Amino acid sequence: xxxxxxxDVSVLRIYLFLGFETGFGRGQNMGTKDKPDISxxxxxxxxxxxxxxxxxxxxxxxxxxxxxxxxIDDATYDALKSRNALLEKMFPDLKRPDSPSEQVGAPxxxxxxxxxxxxxxxxxxxxxxDDDISEFxxxxxxxxxxxxxxALSFTAEPKIDGLSLTLRYEDGQLxxxxxxxxxxxxxxxxxxAKTITDVPSYLAGMDGIVEVRGEVYxxxxxxxxxxxxxxxxxxxxxxxxxxxxxxxxxxxxPAITQSRPLRFFxxxxxxxxxxxxxxxxxxxxxxxxxxxxxxPLTKRCSSPAELIAHxxxxxxxxxxxxxxxxxxxxxxxxxxxxxxxxxxxxxxxxAIAHKFPAEKAWTRLESIEIQVGRTGALSPVARLTPVTVGxxxxxxxxxxxxxxxxxxxxxxxxxxxxKDIREGDWVQIYRAGDVIPKVAxxxxxxxxxxxxxxxxxxxxxxCGSDALREPGDAVRRCSGGMICPAQAMERLxxxxxxxxxxxxxxxxxxxxxFYVDDHLPIHEPSQIFTLGRRDAGNLTKLANREGYGAKSAxxxxxxxxARRHIPMRRLLFGLGIRHVGEAAARLIARHYGNWSAxxxxxxxxxxxxAFQETATSKEVLTKSPAFAELLAIDGVGAVMATxxxxxxxxxxxxxxxxxxCSELTIEDExxxxxxxxPVAGKTVVFTGxxxxxxxxxxxxxxxxxxxxxxxxxxxxxxxxxxxxxxxSKAKKAAELGIETLDEDGWLELIGG
DNA sequence: GTGCCTCGAGTTCC
DNA sequence: CTCGAGGCAC
Length: 752
Fold this sequence. Notes:
Layout: H1 7-22, H2 43-65, H3 74-90, E1 114-116, E2 126-127, H4 130-144, E3 154-160, E4 163-170, E5 173-179, E6 185-187, H5 190-193, E7 209-217, H6 220-232, H7 241-249, H8 254-259, E8 263-272, H9 280-289, E9 299-301, H10 304-317, E10 325-332, H11 335-341, E11 351-355, E12 360-372, E13 378-389, E14 392-398, H12 402-406, E15 426-432, E16 436-442, E17 467-468, E18 477-478, H13 485-495, H14 508-515, H15 526-529, H16 531-536, H17 550-562, E19 565-567, H18 568-574, H19 582-592, H20 595-607, H21 609-612, H22 618-623, H23 625-631, H24 638-648, H25 652-661, E20 665-667, E21 683-687, H26 695-704, E22 708-710, E23 719-722, H27 728-736, E24 739-741, H28 743-749
Helix pairs in contact: 1-3, 2-3, 4-10, 13-14, 18-19, 20-24
The protein binds a DNA duplex through residues 63-69, 71, 126, 243, 246, 344-345, 371, 373-375, 377, 379, 381, 392-398, 400, 409-410, 431-438, 473-475, 578-584, 634-640, 711.
């Protein structure tokens, strides 16, 4: 949407924007400000502008991928590239060797090497209320099977607002430093980390691997001095210490990092040849002995009450600490117990971050806009007069749905004391979880007398179809389905997204362009794979298009071809069927194994009277064999099953799917690799009393090894683990001839 | 039927 | 990151 409309206006905006923000683009471009008439440019002017554009785009590219630089919106970026392409067309001789048109988008951090973490860098679950802390304590006890009066210690330490860094030492020598990245893969910043004085380059007497983790941050005083320097050197000051630290660590030239006053607190570790200690607190002490800075406010506490008391104490000292913190982290002190508890998908079970109340700011709500999502959901978004909240400029805030605007939550109870939100209102904004901007409060006294309650649209703003709300559903949805352009485009974006087809060179921005392209349109997924054929017979080839060069066009086609072979689960997820996400797609693909078997099953199910009567009760569906197979998959229920079958029933959507599949080679889903663990793919039932593990623990471990844990014994059960006191289940297992183990036998099988 | 827990969907800013 | 919905265990 952003690009092809109104080039003139956009270009005008760029010059104002970039000229102001970066100090670039002033002077030589002023002549083009009113109306950039290219034919009137002299070659010298054009060359100067091309040079300027190359610089601006390189700044923009960098800004897009680093946290410290100013932000440039997509429309501006697109317009910059268009202007560049236009100039290059008019003055081909002046095309620069570093021409921005030779690159599609920005190179993804090509400048830093990637590092795959030996041990994943997790994030933390959050808590906001005191009650959450007692609940955390209870959860830990329950998981470990400890009575509520058993002694249990936790550590409490300030949560530093910086960026996490992991330092790898081999035989005492610092060999690698990496940022967190997505937790799996980070960036190699070794040279930069070595310039930080708090980071020891050698650890005496530490043979083998020692991986120390902690937070890089900038103290308030250093930040103020740095910003003074930035200003005096005519550079843009940093918005906050966190951004300054992030920007400083990610400098290409280590000499610049060295000149920046970065500090480091160690608080955790990754891979270790030998353990540091047997408690969290002990490990911190050990890290301090090894020469690391550790936070002096780290304390061992023996009850939730003591944790909260320490939280209050830290909160009171917050302003005088000299560095930014955004909460207090609690960790289970006993390390063997930490190991027993393990991890959820992205967070450890044995730690929690108690966050300080979010910063809030008042601003004006200029308008309410309705966005249409891929499932047709109409989502209201508040356009705000930009305001700084917690060091970041916020100009949009989510309004969830029509009830939220009206002052009610999903259960019908009041939020914001029942105050509704109207266009023009003064609203208080906070960033939930320090990220998502939301409306905390409305100042009704300041409301204009003529302001009317917001009328939520009953029709799709994009295609005009009825927007309907199912009973009991919080969202209103466009009923246009396949005919709604907004939905179609969002579905395409989902299709090329991560976890689905993930096509290199074809992201959301490119989808928006191709969607409105007259010569090479992409309106449905199959057209992505016919793009190459269509381009071949096209006079206005992609390679000659604005924003593309021969090389970038070729790269795009290579990216598309690479995905013509696609794993079944990616295809299933990419189709964007309601209720079928990444996890469900994987489960289903794994169950059916190959695409034709799956589609045959869907066809069969669509013929079932139970489906044609649109009955969705599980009881009715389970009676039909075709549905029974779907519903037998762990994690698939009646809603998901009907949604799937409906998508594959003959009709427009199915035609689209078939057209797509005819372009693809769909890879069968490999059965669970049973060689990796002795219980992979097996169904296990636990019964009786377990003495060495709790139920939750046993289940989590078995699942981690690829087993499915069930509650009752059936013909599908492979292994029964029976502790003392096992009754009917053991008997039934014996009758069915199922392998039965005691707890020790089980532990032996899975290797401890 | 109720209460967890996980997943899906939507959103913002970088 | 959060909320709601779906799935499942109790």
